[in-house]
Amino acid sequence: MILIESVLDAKQKLIEGDQMSGILHSFLKDWQDTAKHVRYIAFRSRETYALDEKGVFSEKEDRADVETFLDSVNNSRPLRSPYKPYIHRLLFSMSQDEWDRSGFEVAGDYQTAVRNTMKRFELKKGYRLEWVAAQHQKKGNPHVHVALKASYTDRDGVEKFFPIKWEEVKELKQTFKEELDQIRGFELNYDYEKKFDRYRTHEHPIFSKPIDTTFIDSLFYEMNRRLEEEKRARERAQGQRSR
């Protein structure tokens, strides 16, 4: 546990030190984990008075229905294969430094950036996407969880699975930055992040091809989730002892 906390702390310091807005991608193949994750992001604490209403938003709704989304995912025939994920998880995040320098409004700006980014992704894919998202205004790392149904319906009414490739995640990240710049009205300096990205792509001489960081991103996400669950369990235990 000490090692996990040290790794997460190191990652957090890296995020807080520079304007590293970005997107992490992972996925869930187990239905129980999928339902648990969507309900978790929807109903956990928002960590700020300005976002005290729990729940999720979607492309057009500020208060989307969690169970309707889960029913849609669970009833998707292409996603019933044990080899295909039910949902893609996209974690939109930025450092506290970027948030503070941008002057964003807690209620509205982040959701607008996510909605615009997802709409541009949808248009590039060429088919309708179904997703819900939840904003968590965590101190030091404000972020938005997006749960994206991993299937779509084509023009003939046939439902099909779709993957998200590493190159698409990189494009999503760039689109997200562009949307943030549009909202704040100016562009922040991303020189540090460009240098950092060289170590994950073929641009750096020690690599001959791009490296897919999905596994590492998923590992960090799972570590953080388990730490938060343990924290809540300790708080519940303390509350019971104090009674």
pLDDT < 50 stretches: 1-19, 48-52, 192-211
Question: Which range does the strand content fall in?
Answer: 5-15%
Q: Roughly how many Å apart are the termini?
A: 29 Å
CATH architecture of the domain at 21-189: 2-Layer Sandwich
**What is the helix/strand order?**
HEHHEHHEEEEHHH
Largest sheet: 4 strands, antiparallel
* Distinct helical segment count: 8
Defining traits:
four-stranded antiparallel beta sheet; alpha+beta; two-stranded antiparallel sheet; 48% helix; BirA Bifunctional Protein, domain 2; 243 residues; 8 helices
Structure explained in plain terms:
The chain has a four-stranded antiparallel beta sheet with strand order 1-2-4-3, with helices on both faces. Strands 5-6 form a two-stranded antiparallel ribbon. The chain has a domain at 21-189: BirA Bifunctional Protein, domain 2 (2-Layer Sandwich). The two termini are 29 Å apart. The chain is globular. Helices cover 48% and strands 14% of the residues. The chain has eight helices and six strands. It is of the alpha+beta class. Mean pLDDT is 78; it is low at 1-19, 48-52 and 192-211.
